[in-house]
UniProtKB/TrEMBL annotation:
<dbReference type="Pfam" id="PF02518">
    <property type="entry name" value="HATPase_c"/>
</dbReference>
<dbReference type="InterPro" id="IPR036890">
    <property type="entry name" value="HATPase_C_sf"/>
</dbReference>
<dbReference type="InterPro" id="IPR004358">
    <property type="entry name" value="Sig_transdc_His_kin-like_C"/>
</dbReference>
<protein>
    <recommendedName>
        <fullName>histidine kinase</fullName>
        <ecNumber>2.7.13.3</ecNumber>
    </recommendedName>
</protein>
<dbReference type="InterPro" id="IPR005467">
    <property type="entry name" value="His_kinase_dom"/>
</dbReference>
<dbReference type="InterPro" id="IPR050640">
    <property type="entry name" value="Bact_2-comp_sensor_kinase"/>
</dbReference>
<keyword id="KW-0812">Transmembrane</keyword>
<keyword id="KW-1133">Transmembrane helix</keyword>
<dbReference type="GO" id="GO:0016020">
    <property type="term" value="C:membrane"/>
</dbReference>
<feature type="region of interest" description="Disordered">
    <location>
        <begin position="1"/>
        <end position="20"/>
    </location>
</feature>
<dbReference type="InterPro" id="IPR010559">
    <property type="entry name" value="Sig_transdc_His_kin_internal"/>
</dbReference>
<dbReference type="GO" id="GO:0000155">
    <property type="term" value="F:phosphorelay sensor kinase activity"/>
</dbReference>
<feature type="transmembrane region" description="Helical">
    <location>
        <begin position="134"/>
        <end position="158"/>
    </location>
</feature>
<feature type="domain" description="Histidine kinase">
    <location>
        <begin position="275"/>
        <end position="377"/>
    </location>
</feature>
<feature type="transmembrane region" description="Helical">
    <location>
        <begin position="65"/>
        <end position="84"/>
    </location>
</feature>
<keyword id="KW-0472">Membrane</keyword>
<dbReference type="InterPro" id="IPR003594">
    <property type="entry name" value="HATPase_dom"/>
</dbReference>
Length: 387
């Protein structure tokens, strides 16, 4: 829930500004000094040229000192004007009322500048202010203050727009995190159910193997449940995957061989939590589980420029889809396919269109699951190694 603080009618419907950064706090006063200095130098230049046209000594130093004193004494009125802009910005729901308040405030500032600060200018410069009427001076100051109010509005609305973008980004990030948490919550029971189902197949055939499998599964599950990040190093992912492969080896024995082909340059890359386990599970359960002659699972990872490629390949039953399709093989066989769909959804949440999960049919048969995602982090190296 987003709560907006309202202080009086002046803030109703007004943009909510982001907190000022130290640089922004310095920007307005520095900008005001630059603006008034610019006006002062223009005023001094005009005064000097007018004196030359009259055949008089321009007295440039005196012109500059008097002009700077005249315009810099406008600066003390800037904070009240800034407060007025924050309190009564020209925007909905009452733009005309707020514009009227700002105009009256600007007129009051111009009058105060002339009445209060003119003696200060005379004291600093030693030159009496007799070059123009009071009305002319007030109108001049009014013009300057209106320019300042316009610039203050620009700063105010810039900060409000930035605050809106920050809020929207926060909401989007929160929704994405909630979606990832839901996907992860969906994946864990699916993983637990499938492993326990595998244990039941061993209970009567090989009780000792079932006991070892259950013990190792409990240790792996404890680690998985305490893993709190959505991403971790590929090295960590491979460690968890190796434990899962041990469970499958207890179930299938030596009937299914596992090959690891992980390039050293890829090991430090950041990858989604449990991105490989559903792919390996898919290879075992839907590619090789019912194959009497055994088979092979190959797990690979490599870096290609700014891309990380993860591959899980088996030589079992190929997918019931065209090569290159991203349809889950598990869907066709069981009507389920939670693991692969979950993996694809998490990739989309984390990386958008920069990541993909594709199922392919290799030339020699079987299935190849290929994940591509942006390469982030990692050390450089060569060669292949097991976890």
């Amino acid at each position: 829930m987003v709560t907006t603080r309202v202080e009086g009618m002046g803030n109703v419907g007004a943009p909510e500004s982001a907190p000022e950064s130290p640089m922004e706090r310095r920007l307005v006063p520095v900008g005001a000094v630059v603006l008034t200095t610019f006006f002062a130098l223009l005023y001094a230049l005009r005064g000097g040229i007018t004196a030359i046209d009259r055949g008089e000594d321009p007295r440039w130093a005196q012109q500059v000192v008097w002009s700077l004193a005249m315009w810099w004494t406008c600066l003390p009125l800037l904070p009240p004007l800034a407060a007025l802009v924050r309190r009564f910005p020209v925007g909905r729901p009452r733009p005309w009322r707020n514009a009227g308040v700002l105009l009256l405030g600007t007129l009051a500032a111009a009058w105060l500048r002339h009445v209060v600060m003119s003696p200060v200018v005379v004291a600093i410069s030693g030159v009496p202010d007799v070059a123009a009427s009071a009305l002319a001076r007030i109108l001049t100051y009014l013009t300057v203050f209106l320019v300042m109010v316009a610039l203050l509005h620009a700063v105010h609305y810039y900060r409000a727009e930035r605050a809106r973008e920050v809020r929207e980004a926060g909401l989007a990030r929160g929704l994405a995190e909630a979606r990832l948490a839901a996907l992860r919550t969906q994946l864990q029971p699916h993983f637990v159910f499938n492993v326990l189902n595998a244990v039941t197949t061993l209970v009567h055939a090989d009780p000792m193997a079932a006991d070892r499998m259950l013990t190792r599964f409990a240790a792996l599950l404890r680690v998985i449940l305490h893993e709190g990040t959505e991403e971790h190093a590929l090295e960590r992912e491979l460690d968890l995957l190796a434990r899962y492969v041990e469970l499958m080896q207890l179930r299938f024995g030596d009937r299914i061989a596992v090959e690891w082909a992980v390039a050293d340059a890829a090991r430090g890359a950041r990858v989604p939590f449990l991105v490989l386990q559903p792919l390996v599970e898919n290879a075992y359960e839907h590619g090789l589980a019912w194959r009497e002659t055994g088979g092979r699972v190959r797990i690979g990872a490599a870096r290609a420029g700014d891309t990380l490629e993860l591959v899980v390949e088996d030589d079992g039953a190929g997918p019931d889809v065209e090569a290159g399709s991203i349809t889950d093989r598990a869907t066709a066989g069981t009507g389920n396919g939670i693991g692969l769909r979950n993996t694809r959804d998490r990739l989309a949440q984390l990386y958008g269109a920069r990541a993909s999960l594709v199922l392919e049919r290799p030339p020699g048969g079987g299935t190849r699951a290929r994940v591509t995602l942006p390469f982030v982090g990692g050390a450089h190296g060569n060669g292949e190694a097991r976890p």
